[in-house]
Write a structure and sequence with these properties.
Length: about 475
């Protein structure tokens, strides 16, 4: 049995990861404990070496123990804990550099399938590859990985399956498949078109990006090849653990009882605010300024999430908690630091450049849902730049029913300008898949997107009619 300890600054974050990992955990092969936060109600964010030590001791029966840390000081707590425990127990402990979320899932899936400690650690360290490939980042594959895909002999057998899962082989079915197949003594490869992957690796299966209706092929060779094929076919018949029936109901067509059509006066909400870049200081000072801006926004987003949870539910609150977690990403922080220290930029210019690059990456994705996340990135960028410029965000005061016109609108902007007099929202750009659209629907505000730049020419105070039925905005 392999033990996993999640060492995080946030107990809420660790508990959420535990809940996610349980979806693919085999407790006989993998035990997970969280050592997260500190016992201080006023300041609960932090790590405690004693908690980590106690977690290690609780997993002392495990053959190996993996410590997965979120941020730098968590590593310090982990190293301190190793100094506090018995040296014999410490020899079984591995400090893993994998990303927290992806690493947790990769370790859980591999360990639950009975993989060796070396395989589990390798899976964790490669856990970002699927995301990197989807975002067109450079994914380094060593020559050794290429050699692993050697030709099969004539003794190899194969089977085919057309995937019925609406979301394809996403994380849960991929983990289920890898876990089931890892116990067989056979070389197993899963093919999706021209792509191929080790069928015992959740990460490599994810890199195949198998979608609904894709035809996949499992090739097996070895003493357990027949048993592996049989297990695959049985799991495929069960849709790899997904309850497909829940998302494949028959379609029924009726007539809408109510389709909102609203009227209001045109009000142009500026998409861009003219900001002035602050004066340049030393690189050290600029990094401090950037860090403070990121920390301050994270705190504001968590406070906002807590208030929205009561009003609109956890699904809306989680949007802003996700934004807060994004700002904690080591890659973002490192990119900002590099631009400040190596390119001698201000905190303002560094954040502007990093978030513009991220926004551009999302806009180039083919998937409409992922592509729409560029709006969240732009929203976070605007909040950070406002803070760095010491400019107060614009407020909205309305006295009669109004239809907001803008190029685009971020989730936090919508929440901030929320007003009972907003009859509807019309955007020149935007996306029906954006979090802004989701929040507007939850608020009961009719919204149209992708209307084109012509709406900029509508005079302010013009009476407008916004119809959801035919997705039209009419000057009355």
């Amino acid at each position: 049995m392999i033990g996993l300890i999640i060492v995080s600054h946030s107990k809420m974050l660790a508990d959420g990861l535990l809940q996610l990992a349980e979806q693919m955990q085999n407790k006989q092969n993998c035990q997970i404990i969280a050592a997260a936060g500190v016992d201080d109600e006023a300041h609960p964010i932090g790590t405690d070496a004693v908690k980590v030590m106690e977690a290690i001791e609780a997993l002392s029966d495990a053959s190996d123990i993996i410590l997965l840390m979120d941020l730098g000081s968590a590593l310090l707590s982990a190293e301190t804990a190793l100094d506090l425990i018995d040296p014999t127990l410490a020899e079984k402990v591995y400090l893993c550099s994998a990303p927290l979320v992806e690493g947790t899932i990769a370790i859980t899936a591999a360990a639950s399938g009975g993989a060796s400690i070396d395989t589990v650690l390798a899976e964790a360290r490669e856990a970002l590859q699927a995301k990197q490939q989807q975002l067109n980042d450079n994914v380094i594959v060593t020559p050794k990985k290429e050699i692993e895909h050697s030709a099969f002999s004539e003794a190899a057998i194969k089977t085919h399956w057309i995937v019925r899962n609406p979301a394809g082989l996403h994380i849960r079915p991929a983990a289920k498949l890898a876990s089931q197949l890892s116990r067989f003594n056979a070389k197993l490869e899963l093919h999706n078109g021209e792509k191929q992957a080790d069928a015992k690796s959740m990460n490599k299966i994810a890199l195949l990006q198998v979608k609904k209706d894709d035809k996949i092929t499992l090739i097996a060779e070895g003493s357990d090849s027949q048993a592996a094929i049989a297990a695959f076919e049985q799991l495929a018949q069960q849709n790899f653990g997904d309850n497909v029936s829940l998302t494949s109901h028959a379609s029924f067509t009726g007539k809408a009882a109510y389709i909102p059509t609203v009227t209001g006066l045109a009000y142009h909400w500026p998409s861009d605010i003219e900001l002035i870049e602050p004066s340049h200081h030393s690189s050290q000072n600029e990094m401090t300024i950037a860090t403070q801006a990121l920390e301050q926004l994270k705190s504001q987003l968590n406070t906002l999430a807590n208030s929205l949870a009561e009003q609109y539910g956890q699904s809306i609150a989680d949007i802003f908690r996700g934004h807060s977690l994004l700002l904690d990403d080591d890659d973002i922080i490192d990119s900002v630091k590099q631009k400040i220290e190596k390119e001698d930029r201000t905190a303002y210019a560094a954040i502007l450049a990093v978030f513009n690059e991220m926004s551009e990456q999302y806009q180039q994705l083919d998937d409409a849902y992922l592509q729409a996340r560029f709006i969240d990135i732009d929203d976070l960028k605007k909040q950070l730049l406002l803070s760095l410029s010491s400019v107060t965000a614009q407020t909205l005061t309305l006295v009669e029913p109004t239809i907001i016109l803008s190029d685009n609108l971020g989730p936090s902007e919508l929440v901030r300008i929320q007003n009972s007099m907003i009859a509807g929202i019309a955007l020149a750009k935007g996306s029906p898949c954006s979090h802004t659209s989701i929040i507007a629907a939850k608020m009961g505000i009719p919204m149209l997107v992708d209307l084109g730049e012509k709406i900029r020419e509508i005079p302010a105070q013009t009476k407008l009619i916004l119809s959801i039925e035919d997705a039209s905005l009419t000057v009355n």
